[in-house]
Amino acid sequence: MLELVASLAAEAGRVEDRLLDPAWVPAWERALPEVLRLLDAPEPEIRRAAVDVLGVCGSPGELVLPGLLRSWEAEADPATRLDLVLALGRAVLRAPAGVHGTEAFGLLHGLLGSPQPQVRLAAVHALAPSDPGLPARRLADVLEAVRDPGVELWSRTGSVHAGVRGVHRWTSGLFDGPDPGFTLGVLADHDDAEQRIAALAQAGGLLSRWRSPAATLLPRLLGRLDDPATEARFRAVELLACLGPAAAVHADEAASLLTDGAARSTRVGQRVKEAALWALVRMNDPRCLPGLTELIAGERSGFASLSGHYPAADWHHVVLPSLPEMLRRLPDHAAPLLPAVCDRIGTLADDRRLHQLCEVLAAWGPAAEEAVPRLLGLLEDDRTWNAAATALAGIGRGGADAGDLLLSRAGAGGPHGELAAWAYWRVCDDPGPVLELLGRSLAEQRIRHPELRRLAGLGSHAAPHADRLRAMTSDTDPWIRVEAAHALWAATGDTENTVPVLTAVVRELPEGTHVPVMLPAVRHLARIGHAAGPAAELLRVIPACDRRLRSDGSWRAFTQDEDIRSAVQELLSA
After folding, report:
1. Which residues pair with 4 in a beta bridge?
2. Alpha-carbon distance 566 to 562, whole Å?
3. Residues 502 and 517 sit within 8 Å (Cβ to Cβ)
4. pLDDT per residue over 87-127, tens digit each?
5. In 174-271, which residue ranges form alpha helices assigned H by DSSP?
6. Residue 315 buriedness (CB in 10 A; 0-12 / 13-18 / 19+)
7. What single DSSP character describes residue 415?
8. What is the pLDDT of residues 500-533, one digit of tens each?
9. Closest CA relative to residue 41, chosen from 7, 9, 1
């Protein structure tokens, strides 16, 4: 029951008074004396819960500090004393603090010299809101506490209730910015495997937010590649994979784990060697090819079966990509992988996996031309033809033998008629069928941004649709605006209407805001070239920006940052 009261009290303290239920304030005023009385309950669990409520409620310090200070003098339970320190730190900041405010601050500052590491840590947390520089000045005390066996005491508290990893994450919030001091400290050698794993989790969180710590932390990551704990080895090499090109000089160290079959204690049970394989993919190292060939053939693995997306956060989501996501990153190695892909697409009964592999072929482009004979067979099958058409559209003129079949599919109409017509244009250089179908979609106002991207690919052939495209540059959907602006420029060369639209989409990028639609916008601006000068001037600060530009978590935080920076560099060069 007290947990519910704590949640309600905390929420009431966060929202504006005008949004509170009028009955809340009198109800809380009636409940407060009862909560204060629970500070004297015989059970420490109840006392801790009461302390937690008093710490998060909205009552001013003058009402709760007397009870908390009296409880501090009487409390003997170590976990409850930690909760009391945190509650005092919160309550003393809720004005008016009353006559006991000075006493509470004096107590908290005195606790910075406590002989108990966890009490010192609690005092740093309690005082940090009023003294943001305190954690950096007391870094040695903080590190001693979070690396001490006594850190497990926090798992019994009511306000934190976390083990080693949770305390690491909670405490890392005291250190804002890219300074790796805290992370370096927790990454130092430790006898406890849980401490080493927690330190790697902290490193992942810092690296996913900032670029500059990579050079400093890399030696510590490399030092964990031979850790006796499977989870530590996995996390260390997975972070090498996330850093990818920035860690490519350490490909030999990653390759040394390709034979490490130890599995994590997770539901999927990903193996260390799979994280090492992913690292080599990210480094574009050919030693990944044998392992990928086995995966293409159908070997069971811990790699994701679907593309997973995780929100950007202060911590790092430790996951592996799917096989197609890895393969799409290796156009330089298409030739040795093509035989395995061709064999696989000829036997797959799973339509989703077939589409995924055909999308890989499309991403490889002309380098996948040797797959065309196998794709022709798929093109004749009603179940598989649209997957084959996707691949052929990416391969381009090397798939000209598929022209008649694609034209037939385009003429049959249906939901995938535009795909067949687009593939026909790509392999035979005849824009007629796809122009007719896309023009019909435009006229009926049912076109989406992927189709607009196809219109852009038609270049000047799409010029008759310029008026409609120009109107769509003011659509409420940013994806529609971006792709319509690009199609208008590609069709007519119009920069007066298109550059402002694309520039507006990326205006917040220099402030660290990243949304996926910004990447195609920057790429389109780079293609426009000199006329995109205003956007280039706006984004000129990006290369020096240390914060990672990301909207997703996990490994995507790193690849999104790399992709948008590469696009910005192309724009600046253009």
Report:
1. none
2. 6
3. no
4. 999 999 999 999 999 999 999 999 999 999 999 999 999 99
5. 181-187, 193-209, 213-222, 230-243, 251-255
6. middle
7. T
8. 999 999 999 999 999 999 999 999 999 999 999 9
9. 1
